[in-house]
């Protein structure tokens, strides 16, 4: 069903991006995995399998994005799906965050998402259809301490999702957003295991009482990426075990 589809997953060489790229590839979708680190990206694509194609690009270098997307579109013939997963975080006390640090996170998590989405949307417009999926966070659903820049960036991503959905609907392009809750990755496990108080707080306000699996995010992205969600645009779907509504 999906063998003639082409996808791009940014930051697809680790964590939730890896799980998402794997899901798309397993479903027969040719997936370009964009990563900054060549070695890591090649290794990830090898693990994912034959439908994964590595593409080395630092998305913070905005002026390189148009040529990269042109290259992918030329090679693939079209781009059906874009998953904006790449992002960075920084934990720091609010009063100590410097302007440059704040800007760096916004540049990566917001401006580069805008820039690549714009270029991919131009290709999708030619094709008369497409699906863009942005990745948000619980940091956009409620206040989490020590992540002011990240919270601002992910809230911006959700606002952009709605604005892009309205602007691009006339071209047959849908734009939606997945908001992961607390998911079991190497990074999150390490962080939570070293901070039992935080771990208990996370699980305590998650009605389902457990951490999610990376594959849960991949499944949600797949729903948005394909015709399963053909009448859905401008939405934010929390995949969080109820964390965003938990008490």
UniProtKB/TrEMBL annotation:
PROSITE patterns attached to this UniProt entry: ADH_SHORT
Keyword NAD: no
Enzyme Commission number, as recorded: 1.1.1.-
Keywords (A to Z) from UniProt: Oxidoreductase
GO MF term set: oxidoreductase activity
Keyword Cytoplasm: no
InterPro entries: NAD(P)-bd_dom_sf, Sc_DH/Rdtase_CS, SDR_fam
Gene3D superfamilies reported in the protein's UniProt record: NAD(P)-binding Rossmann-like Domain
NCBIfam families cross-referenced by the UniProt entry: PRK07231.1
Family: Belongs to the short-chain dehydrogenases/reductases (SDR) family.
Name the record gives this protein: SDR family NAD(P)-dependent oxidoreductase
Organism (species): Zunongwangia endophytica
């Amino acid at each position: 069903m999906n063998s003639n589809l082409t996808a791009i997953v940014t930051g697809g060489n680790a964590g939730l991006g890896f799980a998402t790229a794997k899901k798309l590839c397993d479903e027969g979708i040719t997936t370009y995995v964009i990563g900054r680190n060549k070695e890591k990206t090649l290794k990830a694509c090898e693990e994912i399998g034959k439908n994964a194609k590595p593409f080395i690009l630092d998305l913070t270098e905005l002026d390189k994005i148009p040529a990269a997307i042109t290259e992918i579109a030329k090679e693939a013939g079209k781009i059906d799906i874009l998953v904006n997963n790449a992002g960075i975080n920084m934990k720091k006390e609010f009063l100590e965050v410097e302007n440059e640090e704040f800007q760096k996170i916004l540049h990566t998590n917001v401006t580069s998402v805008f820039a690549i989405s714009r270029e991919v949307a131009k290709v999708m417009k030619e094709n008369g259809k497409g699906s863009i999926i942005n990745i948000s966070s619980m940091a956009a659903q409620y206040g989490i301490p020590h992540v002011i820049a990240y919270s601002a960036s992910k809230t911006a991503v959700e606002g952009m999702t709605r604005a892009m959905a309205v602007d691009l609907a006339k071209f047959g392009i849908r734009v939606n957003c997945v908001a992961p809750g607390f998911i079991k990755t190497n990074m999150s496990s390490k962080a939570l295991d070293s901070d039992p108080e935080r771990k208990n707080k996370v699980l305590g306000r998650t009605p389902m009482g457990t951490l999610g699996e990376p594959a849960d995010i991949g499944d949600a992205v797949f729903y948005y990426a394909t015709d399963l969600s053909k009448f859905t645009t401008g939405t934010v779907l929390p995949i969080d075990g109820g964390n965003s509504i938990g008490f």
